[in-house]
Amino acid sequence: MRFELALQHWEVFASGVWMTLHLTALCLLIGGCIAIPVAFAMLRGGVSGWLATGYVYLFRGTPLLVQLYLVYYGLSQFDFIRETWFWRPPAYLRSACIEDLMGWKVCAADFIPSLRSAWWCALITFSLNSGAYVGEILRGALKNTPKGELEAATALGLTDKQVRRRIHIPSAFRRALPQYGNEVIFMMHGSAIMSVITLQDILGVGRWLRAKYYVPYEGIVASAILYLVITYLLVFAFQLIERRYLRHLNIKAPGAERGWFGRSAV
Amino acid sequence: MKRIILALAASSILTAGAASAETLKVCAEGAYPPFSKTNEAGDLEGFDIDIANAICDEIGVTCELQATEWDGIIPALLEKKCDAIIASMSITEERKKAIDFSEKYYNTPARFVARSDADFTIDEDGLADMVVGVQRGSVHQDFMEKTFPEVELQLYGTQDEVYLDLQSGRLDAAIQDSIAADDGFLKTDAGDGFAFIGGNQNDPAIHGEGAGIGVRKEDVFLKYALSAAIAALRENGTYKEINDKYFEFDIY
Q1: Residue of A14, A167, B53, B103 with fewest CB within 10 Å of its CB?
Q2: Comparing A41-50, A108-117, B200-209, which segment has the lowest mean pLDDT?
Q3: Chain B within 8 Å of A118 (Cβ-Cβ)?
C-alpha cells in the first residue's frame, strides 16, 4: 500500500473536498427553496398539487445517475438548446469579469446556468433531485402535525396565516430534522456520481490517483476516508442541531420544563 | 524453441493458480472502437478482441475476456483479476514501472480531432482558450499534461464519452489514437463535421513504441509466450486476416 501518494497530492484531494462540499451545499440550498413550495402544493392539491406530485414522483422514481446522464448527455443532443444562452453565455458576458475578487476571477457569465458546463449540469440535476426528496420529507412532516396543536393555536385567536407561519411550519420542520439530516448525507454521498461527468470531486480525485499511479486501492480508500470524516462531521452537526431544536421531544433534556412546545412555539 | 516457450508459459499460468491451465484471463476494454467495443448483445468485439482470441489459440489456451474500466485496468492486472491486458495499451516507460509488456502488436500515431471548420493551430497559443478532452489514464493525458500544461483538460472514463462531448460542443478538441478516432468516430455518422487537425503527435518518451500486451512483472514466461504468439500470427497470416477485417493498411 502506498498511502504516501495520497498525502503527497493532498492539495488535489483538498480541491476534491471543496468540489464535493460546495456543490452539495449549493444543491441543498436550492433544493430547499424548491422543496418548501412543493410540499405546500402537494398538501393543497389542485393543479399545482398534481404538478408538484408529478415532479416528486419523477425525481424519486429514477436513479440520480440516470437523471445526470439525461441532463448532461441528453439535453446536449438538441441543437435548439445549444443555440441559446443556456448552452454558453454570450462572449460579452464571459469577458465582463472582475479579476482578483479575493483571489478569484468572477465573470457575469458565471451566474447564467450554462448546460455546456459539467458543474451547472450537476448543480441543476442534484438541486432538482434534492428538492423532490426534501419536498416529500416536508410534506410528510406538515401532514403529520397533530391536529390539536393547530386547533389550540386557532383557539388562541391566531389567524390562519399566523398559525401556518408560527405553529405549523416551525413544528413540522423541527420534526423533519432527523430525516433531513439523512437527506443531507445521502446528497453528499450521491454527489460522488458527478465524477462520471468529468468533475474532479473526492471520488474523481481518487480515480485520478488510481489511473496515474496504477494503485488499485489507495486513491479509492483515501476518498472513502474523506467521505467518512465528512459524514461523521455532518452527523455530529445534526446531533447538535437536533439537541437544540428537538429539545421539547426529549423530556429529560434541560429546558424541558419550559413546556411541551419549547420556547418559540407560542 | 517457440514450442518450449509456449509449454513453459502454459505451465506458468498453471502455477499462477488464478485460472485453470486452459484459460487465460484477459482484461479488455469495450468502449474504444474499432479496437474494442460492446455490441448490442453485450459481448466484446473488435480488433483487440480478435487478436486476443487468436493469441490464445496460438498458445493453446482459451481466452476469458473481461470488460474492464480503463482507468482501473492496470490495478486489475496487479490484483490478479486478469493475467494479461489486451486493450490497445501503449508501451510506455511510466507503465513499465508497474507492469511489463509483450512486444508491440500494433503501432499507430496520436492526432487531434476538432470541428472541420476549426481554425486554431496545435500549439500553446492556438490551444490557449480551448477545452481538450482525453481519456483518463491514457498516454494522451500524459501528453497534454507535459506538452500543453496550461490548456484546460477534461478527463473522461471512456473514449466514447469524449466523442459525445466533442459532438455536443463541450470540447473544442480531443486527442487520441488516430486510427481509433478515424474508424470509431470520423467515419461514423456521429463524426460528420469533424476532422483531424494538425499532424501526428509523437513524443517517444510518452507515446512509446506501440501497443503491447500488459502482464505482471513476475510472469516472464507468459510475456515471452505472448510475444512469440504475436510473431507467429504475423508469420502465418492470421494477423493480416484480422487486420484486413478492420483496416485498409497494415497497422503493425
Answers
A1: A14
A2: A108-117
A3: yes
- The amino acid at residue A187 is M
Question: Grid coordinates representing A200?
Answer: 474532479
CB A150 within 8 A of CB A67: no
Answer yes or no: is the ipTM higher than 0.85.
Answer: no
How many angstroms separate the CA atoms of A213 and A5, rounded?
Answer: 8
- Best probe of the A interface among B95, B156, B168, by most A CBs < 10 A, is B168
Residue A90: the pLDDT is 79
**CA distances for A252 relative to A241, A248, B77, angstroms:** 17, 9, 58
Cis peptide before A254 (omega within 30 of 0): no
- The closest of A205, A67, A83 to A132, measured between CA atoms, is A67
**In chain B, whose CA is at the least distance from the CA of A74?**
B168
CA distance A209 to A251: 50
Exposed, middle or buried: residue A247 (CB in 10 Å: 0-12, 13-18, 19+)? Answer: middle
Contact B95 A77 (CB under 8 A): no
> CA B90, CA B35: separation in Å to the nearest integer?
13
Which residue, B31, B81, B213, B28, is CA-closest to A217? B81
Asked whether A56 and A135 are in contact (CB, 8 A), the reply is yes
B200 within 8 A of B178, measured Cβ to Cβ: yes
CATH of domain B2-107+209-246: 3.40.190.10
What whole-number distance in Å separates Cα of residue B202 and Cα of residue B197?
Answer: 14
Interchain pair A214, B170: CB under 8 A:
no
Q: Which CATH class is domain B110-206?
A: alpha beta
Q: What's the rounded mean pLDDT across residues A5-19?
A: 93
Contact: A210, B75; criterion CB under 8 Å: yes
Domains along chain A with CATH numbers? 4-76+116-247 (1.10.3720.10)
Q: Yes or no: say if A169 and A139 are a contact pair by the CB < 8 Å rule.
A: no
Q: What is the mean pLDDT of residues A170-182?
A: 93
Contact B130, B120 (CB under 8 A): yes
Residue with cell 505472448: B226
**What pLDDT does residue B52 have?**
96
Contact present, A64 and A126 (Cβ < 8 Å): yes
pLDDT classification of A141: cutoffs 50, 70, 90:
very high
- DSSP secondary structure code for residue B145 in this structure: H
Chain B residues near any Cβ of chain A (below 8 Å): 70-72, 74-76, 78-79, 95, 98-99, 136-137, 141, 154-157, 164-165, 167-170
Alpha-carbon separation of residue B100 from A208, B65, B69, B84, B127 (angstroms): 22, 19, 19, 10, 35
CATH 3.40.190.10 maps onto chain B at: 2-107+209-246, 110-206
In single-letter form, the type of residue at position B133 comes to G
pLDDT at B22 over 50: yes
